[in-house]
Amino acid sequence: MKPSHTLNSAFLIPLLITTQVAAQTYSTCNPLTQGNPTYDSNGASFTVAQPGDSPQLTSKWYIMFGHVEFQIKPAPGVGIVSSAVLQSDDLDEIDWEWLGGDNSQVQSNYFGKGQTTTWNRGAFHANPNNQADFHTYTIDWTADQISWQIDGKPVRTLSPDQAAGQYPQTPMMIKVGSWSGGDPSNPPGTIGKLIPRVTFKVSRS
């Protein structure tokens, strides 16, 4: 069976300027990750072609604070989410997310210890025509603040006091990839107004 509808996300492998923590072993935070990136002159590409696809690259090491730059061209397609994430084994998270149905903005977000009882930590930033060109998206994470930047210009800054006890402060891996936020198997909290349900059409060859 071959999918008749394929969505691609082209990413350059992230440029990392970090302070590395002592060597640690790799652990998989998301056992549902499926699919593999492909590589060409633009770097890595991630294809979401069928339900359950969520190809990503994950570092095999951790950082405890640091400066990470991603050069990204997000994937187009309603219901498709492209993401660049710092995430710990304790589910602290700092991220960038792009919705494939909206190429005019990008979302910055953070979580502390996987606390998802509220969804008020995200912020949207103007990022017009982001699916047409590569841009540099930066996360600068210190003990004193998190700064999100687009092409070197700060768009958001967060201090521990502003995070109301949810400031990320455990060693994190770096992840980049695409997934179907609109996959029918996702819970209603994921599928909604911003991420509509995706229908996959499969044809036999």
Walk me through this protein's architecture.
The protein is mostly beta strands and 205 residues long. The protein is 0% helix and 45% strand. It has no helices and 16 strands. The protein has strands at residues 2-3, 7-11, 15-20, 38-40, 43-48, 56-58, 63-73, 80-88, 93-99, 105-111, 123-126, 135-141, 146-150, 153-158, 172-180, 202-203. Strands 2, 3, 4, 5, 7, 12, 13 and 14 form an 8-stranded antiparallel beta sheet that branches. Strands 6-15-8-9-10-11 form a 6-stranded antiparallel beta sheet, with no helix packed on it. Strands 1-16 form a two-stranded antiparallel ribbon. A hairpin with a 4-residue loop joins strand 12 and strand 13 (146-150). It starts with a strand and ends with a strand.
Number of E strands = 16
Output the radius of gyration: 16 Å
Largest sheet: 8 strands, antiparallel
- The string of secondary-structure elements, in order, is EEEEEEEEEEEEEEEE
Low-confidence stretches: 1-32, 186-205
Between the first and last Cα atoms, what is the distance in angstroms? 6 Å
Strand content: 35-45%
What average pLDDT do the residues reach?
Answer: 75
- The rough form would be described as globular
Helix content: under 10%
Count helical runs: 0
Give the class from helix and strand content and strand pairing. mainly beta
Features:
205 residues; mainly beta; 8-stranded antiparallel sheet; 6-stranded antiparallel sheet; 0% helix; disordered N terminus; disordered C terminus
Topology summary:
Blueprint: E1 2-3, E2 7-11, E3 15-20, E4 38-40, E5 43-48, E6 56-58, E7 63-73, E8 80-88, E9 93-99, E10 105-111, E11 123-126, E12 135-141, E13 146-150, E14 153-158, E15 172-180, E16 202-203
Antiparallel strand pairs: 1-16, 2-5, 2-7, 3-7, 4-5, 6-15, 7-12, 8-9, 8-15, 9-10, 10-11, 12-13, 13-14
